[in-house]
Amino acid sequence: MTALFVGHSYIDMTMVADSMPTGDEKAVAKDYAVSFGGNAVTAAFACAKLGVQTDLLTTMSDDWLGQMFWEMAHKYGVSIYPRKVARSSLSFVLPKGGKRAILRARDSHYLRPFMKLDVSSYEALHLDGHQADAALFYACAFRERGLLTSLDGGAVRTNTEEVLRHIDVAVVAEAFCRQLKLTPLETLTYLTSRGVKIAAVTEGEHGLLWSDEDGLISRMPALRVPEDKVVDTSGAGDVFHGAYLASYLRNRTARWAEHFAFARAASAFKIQHLGNEAGLPSLGDIAEMQRLYGENMVAI
Prior knowledge:
Elements lengths: L1 E6 L2 E7 L14 E7 L1 H11 L3 E8 L3 H13 L1 E7 L4 E8 L2 E7 L18 E4 L4 H13 L3 E6 L6 H5 L4 E5 H7 L3 H10 L4 E5 L5 E4 L5 E4 L15 H15 L5 H15 L12 H11 L4 E2 L1
Helix pairs in contact: 1-7, 7-8, 8-9
């Protein structure tokens, strides 16, 4: 089982605080976590934690944050294919009340072309739309070989329309729908009209609205994690993506309802932990979430 992930890497600094100071104010955070970040990046680490051999084509720099990222990847057995940038990208994440505010500093000025890998050694691809040239190249290459292609549609990017024509599984955010000025239901129609086989919109605590292999539209409710156990929702969607890829690669004959139910339980684990690394679930953690909070889908 080998998967390729293409995206943009961050170092995330997640801090729990009552408020964000302004002006000359100072404040002390209650807790913090430092971890890898980025949509496809976090999905890659989640997939690796679940036993899939994972390669990651992502932005890297030679600074000390870049070295930190290399060490994290080595710890989880994620193989890095770097695309050089001058500085590492950084995110400050402030979770509070089931939401999270994020301030990012990003270097997306690529100093080198992306690496063109032999895709015959892979079984699935996951993109988050960053590195638009690499995303389109690999979407086309995987589709030509009949290999699964997956897209995290956190936002509409420069070549989203073109990339979608080579995507099998597209799971997009509500922000994606708003950019297109479409409702979630209309967005499912938009995605399937582009050739997407499994289309879904994540709606946070309201769960997942999606269209299955037969075109049946259903709602998969989010697992009812008690409010007092919700610590940090940042990265929950990224863990969801990594987990459904892992589920697919572990059992390709299963239907996507099973893959998404597995991923939903992975997200339920993530939101109970501060930072992306602490929120990576094991197979045992996912089984426990399903046992504690399992629910069924609702056809609409």
